[in-house]
Amino acid sequence: MKRTTVPRDPNREEKKGKLAKGMAIVVKNLTKKYEDVTAVDKLDLEIQRGELFGLLGPNGAGKTTTVNILCGLLKPTSGSVYVAGYDVLKEPKKVKELIGVAPQATAVFPSLTGRENLELFGDLHLMPKDHLKKNVDELLKKVGMTEDARRRVGKYSGGMMRRVNLAMALVHDPQIAFLDEPTVGMDPQSRHAVWDFIKELKKKNRTVILTTQYMEEAEELCDRVAIIDHGKLIALGTPKQLEDKHGGKNLEDVFIQLTGRRIREGI
Amino acid sequence: MKVRRISSLAKKDLKAYVREPAALFMVFLFPVIFTLVLGVGFGAVGGNQPTTYQIGVVNMNEGASHPEWAQYLIGNLSESEILRVESYSSNDSAQADLIQGKIQGYLIIPADFGQSCYSFWASPSNSSSWTNTTVKLYLDKGSLFATQAIPSIVQQVLIETLYGTLPSASSGPVTLGFPSLIQARALTTFDYFAPGLFAFASIFLIMIVAQSLTFERENGLLSRLYATPTSGGEVMMGKTVSNMVIALIQAALVFIMAFLVGYRPVSDAGSIVFAFIIVSIFSLCCVGFGLIAAAISKSSGVATGVSFIFIMPLMFLGTFVTAGLSSVAQSAGQFVPSYYATDALTSLLLRGAPVFSPMVLLDLVIVSIYSAVVLGIGILLFRRCERA
Q: Angle at Cα A112 formed by Cα B30 and Cα A95, nearest 5°?
């Protein structure tokens, strides 16, 4: 059987004119329906390379569904998605080589140690062993888990698991990181440590897509934010631009103005 | 498919089995304890040396002249507190039972035995008128007690039968032949159970695989794996490899434990290695059933229950448990793969069949086909369930 090889060129689609120059993610007319529920509704997004982009929205707004589609875990009902220059629908494996995903719900292997969880994900990305060891050591240090790295994750506290959950997404030094509510359940110290860590990713010119319900987190970290509700994009811009445009004293004000005060349930 | 990914995923599963107490018990300790209990309960421990001896008698004197003498001898043997006598119609049938260890020895009463005894009593002092004959004795070569004790007991009974209350003569017309030693095994119930135990241990992989996959699915771990370049095929292969390794370790543990409690297979090293290959192929079938159970279960708790839908028939219809079942149930056993795995293992380890005997190869082919089909269905169902 003839094998077709796809070059590992993140600018591939740019050269073909499918992506604007410097774009990490381009989403066009993205829709995802679950029977009679529309989770994502004709969403258009462009995220630049090296950008720290916040995806905000109340429970059930479609944030996680959007992230799952961008990661190639879910197939959209319609629309197109390009990540790092690759069409997610046509070349999901290429996309997955270049991205790192920290899911919203902590997903760690409880019978492995913290170090083993990181090493497993490095192995799945076929990292060279010496590079993997170096990255694992660095990441464990950054998330403050060096001392507990040889303990089984099942014996960790919730906050420690969250930190390992985050580190697992970044062990292979991905070009694009999807961090789905990475600081949920963390104490202020851990949260600030993770913020510093995310800022470092930006300094390394990595693209970060951050979903969060903490508006001060988005304000602190994100270059631009998109607020989505009922699967639709309802606001897009820098936190300052949104505050100016909607007359809020901070991003939380804007968020409440746009999405209302009604309590939501996640789906 | 990348070998490194498969090996990392398999190692991850193996660590989970070793480190989680529940899995550790089910995968390793349960088969070991079960083997030990069966070994002790069904005769592998201390069961080989009976306090009485079971011997067979082939009476060729029946229908010949003076058959009452043979009946006297059999009666006297039966009255002995040490010997338990069983009659056989032919040398072949007695020898078959001796080889299988059902009796420790047998003697053949010759057709002229009655005539010989009669000739002695007709003229006790005239040896030239006697009809001389020999009672042949066959003994279990492997039984130290049988070779030592039985000839002297039989000799004693023979003298009592021939001379009665007379002082025993230094010589008479009837002599006891030099015992022929035959290689035989004293089979215990456990010997019949042991081959089935190897398949029995693997069957519980169904539950382990189903629980493991549903746990990973419930906790978002499978999704997380699929967010990496890892393919579904690599994840499935990792599961398959880890469980094949587990099956081989289980078989080795069961074998060691069975050996420690007295089990001795009648096979060479090649047959034992081949038995392990059969177990590993059968384990693929169990992985397949585990995948099917995981595909139709919403949670690991449900998966445990669903697993038993597959475990029960495989266990009761296809392993050592079959021996006590009705003929209908035994016929039904022919529809479960564990029946063929157990049959192949029994042929190799109990019947001493060579590796390439047609029966063993036929069983292996059937187990392989079952494994390929069940594993294929399991992978298809599980992948479909994941996509849904």
A: 125
Nearest to A124 among B15, B219, B230 (CB): B230
Res A21: pLDDT: 59
Strands B180-182 and B105-109: unpaired
Q: What is the pLDDT of residue A17?
A: 43
What is the DSSP-derived secondary structure letter of residue B35? H
Q: Which candidate from A105, A120, A121 shows the least CB-CB separation from B220?
A: A105
b/e burial code for range A177-216 (CB count within 10 A of at least 16 → b): bbbbbbbbebeeebbebbbebbeebbeeebbbbbbbbbbe
Six token digits for residue A155: 């014996």
Evaluated on CA atoms B76, B77, B78, B80, the torsion sign reads: positive
Q: What is the pTM of this model?
A: 0.74
- Residue B312: in which H helix or E strand, if any? helix B300-318
When computed from its CA atoms, the radius of gyration of chain B, rounded to whole angstroms, is: 29
Interchain CB contacts (distance < 8 Å): A and B: 62
Please give the structure tokens belonging to residue B322: 């079959």
Of all residues in chain B, the one with the smallest CA distance to A101 is: B227
What average pLDDT does chain B have?
84
Interchain contact A34–B (C-beta under 8 A): no
Alpha carbons B103 and B186: distance in angstroms, whole number: 8
List CB contacts of B337: < 8 A, sequence separation 6 or more.
B282, B285, B314, B318, B366, B367, B370, B371, B374
Buried b (16+ CB within 10 A) or exposed e, B122-159: eeeeeeeebbebbbbbbbbebbeebbebbbebbeebbb
The 3-state secondary structure of A110-147, one letter per residue = CCCEHHHHHHHHHHHCCCCHHHHHHHHHHHHHHCCCCC
pLDDT digits (tens, 9 = 90+) for B74-117: 988 888 777 889 999 999 989 888 887 778 889 999 999 999 98
